[in-house]
DUF6894 domain-containing protein (Methylobacterium nonmethylotrophicum), 83 residues
Amino acid sequence: MSCYYFHFQVGSRLIRDTRGVELEEPHEIITCSAHIAVLLKRRACREPEWKEAIIHVEDKERRFSLFLPIARFADAIPRLQAS
């Protein structure tokens, strides 16, 4: 298992994930990011710039870094909310 941190950035604001998430497989990063996008969409009415937000994923050692635009998950959000 590896620990990954899912930081959230909107414009110049960066919200750091200080706890991290233990994942068994690296492909779980996408699923976890999609769930984060669902949670963030609930704030869309208060913060309309959420569509330009980025989820920045990195591992504990900072050897792995991935930038995922929230818009990438726009099609998955209704499907995930229904489950």
